[in-house]
């Protein structure tokens, strides 16, 4: 491993792998083959990927084998709740994908309705560190049953009274007759590093990567809106443009009752917004994606 190349840990396959690779590609990185199945080499930046199980990523970054990593906050904070070894890791950037929530849930018609009902009960989870800390902070002493997977079947099998598990749509809970009653953590994919990582050329590569990733994330959430507005309705229409402070207003050739409005909107643009704009008098409304951004 050459000294001057940045080592970035990403998940080998799974929910974080897809979003992570897509982000890196949109940030302009092109990858060739690495020297083995564990490595991939960027062809146009001094950067190497290490392809790992997501659970191993905090360990590789904390130990210095990797400079940076892409991991779920759930995995990072669980590692930190379990061991001081991970205290030196920090979140550099929230990446806006792989969103999920760590929730406490219990059988729908059972006696566990809230956190206070967990006193003296058993909670099955793959996140014993976060679950124990959450309950302790609320003065609840419960037995933590650690499971690697299929946590949602624990109550039915009589192994636990409740579970603490990741939820995205809630379909798995529903299918197992469970209902969530408390949120322990809101999680998304994040870029992490050691607080006192390598300086010099590697830090410069990292700074470029972070700046580009910020641009990719910002542009994914940002849209460019073009429309024609009756001059008299301009204040109403400006007020309806989501997350835009200073739209450009330009003349429309041969018309003095209509102006063209161009705006960068830093929030999602819903159909409802377009309907309101139209009702306010806007016409020829176009919403365009923005490919790249740099402030
Ligand atoms: P690995 O083989 O790398 O250990 P895994 O099975 O642990 O993979 P995935 O299921 O790919 O991992 O999930 C990776 C991450 O995706 C999770 O840690 C979490 O941050 C995020 N995630 C988003 N939605 C969900 C969900 N519904 N269930 C589980 N994880 C989710
Ligand atoms: Mg895993």
TrEMBL record:
GO terms for molecular function: ATP phosphoribosyltransferase activity. Its EC number is 2.4.2.17. It is an enzyme of class 2 (transferase). Pathway: Amino-acid biosynthesis; L-histidine biosynthesis; L-histidine from 5-phospho-alpha-D-ribose 1-diphosphate: step 1/9. Keywords: Amino-acid biosynthesis, ATP-binding, Cytoplasm, Glycosyltransferase, Histidine biosynthesis, Magnesium, Metal-binding, Nucleotide-binding, Transferase. Pfam families: HisG, HisG_C. Residues 53-199 form the ATP phosphoribosyltransferase catalytic domain. Feedback inhibited by histidine. It is found in: Cytoplasm. Signal peptide: none annotated. It catalyses: 1-(5-phospho-beta-D-ribosyl)-ATP + diphosphate = 5-phospho-alpha-D-ribose 1-diphosphate + ATP. Its cofactor is Mg(2+). It comes from the Bacteria. Residues 221-292 form the Histidine biosynthesis HisG C-terminal domain. Coiled coil: none annotated. PANTHER family: ATP PHOSPHORIBOSYLTRANSFERASE (PTHR21403:SF8), ATP PHOSPHORIBOSYLTRANSFERASE ATP-PRTASE (PTHR21403). Belongs to the ATP phosphoribosyltransferase family. Long subfamily. Catalyzes the condensation of ATP and 5-phosphoribose 1-diphosphate to form N'-(5'-phosphoribosyl)-ATP (PR-ATP). Has a crucial role in the pathway because the rate of histidine biosynthesis seems to be controlled primarily by regulation of HisG enzymatic activity. HAMAP family: HisG_Long. This is ATP phosphoribosyltransferase.
């Amino acid at each position: 491993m050459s000294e001057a190349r940045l080592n970035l840990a990403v998940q080998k396959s799974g929910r974080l792998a897809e979003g992570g690779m897509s982000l890196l590609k949109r940030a302009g990185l092109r990858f060739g083959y690495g020297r083995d199945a564990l490595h991939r080499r960027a062809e146009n930046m001094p950067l190497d990927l290490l392809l790992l199980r997501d659970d191993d990523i905090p360990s590789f970054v904390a130990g210095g084998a990797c400079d940076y990593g892409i991991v779920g906050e759930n995995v990072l904070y669980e590692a930190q709740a379990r061991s001081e070894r991970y205290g030196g890791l920090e979140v550099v950037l929230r990446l806006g994908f792989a969103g999920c929530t760590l929730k406490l849930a219990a059988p729908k018609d059972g006696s566990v309705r809230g956190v206070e009902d967990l006193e003296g009960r058993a909670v099955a989870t793959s996140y014993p560190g976060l679950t124990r800390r959450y309950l302790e902070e609320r003065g609840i002493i419960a037995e933590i049953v650690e499971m690697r997977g299929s946590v949602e079947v624990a109550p039915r099998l009589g192994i636990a009274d409740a579970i603490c598990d990741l939820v995205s749509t809630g379909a798995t809970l529903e299918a197992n007759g469970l209902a969530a009653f408390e949120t322990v953590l809101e999680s998304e994919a994040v870029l992490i590093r050691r607080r006192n990582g390598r300086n010099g050329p590697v830090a410069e590569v990292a700074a470029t990567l972070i700046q580009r990733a910020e641009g990719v994330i910002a542009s994914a959430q940002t849209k460019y809106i073009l429309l024609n507005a009756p001059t008299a309705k301009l204040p109403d229409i400006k007020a309806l443009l989501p997350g835009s402070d200073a739209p450009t207003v330009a003349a429309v050739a041969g018309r003095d009752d209509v102006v063209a409005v161009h705006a960068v909107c830093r929030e999602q643009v819903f159909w409802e917004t377009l309907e309101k704009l139209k009702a306010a008098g806007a016409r020829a409304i176009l919403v365009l994606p923005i490919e790249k951004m740099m402030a």
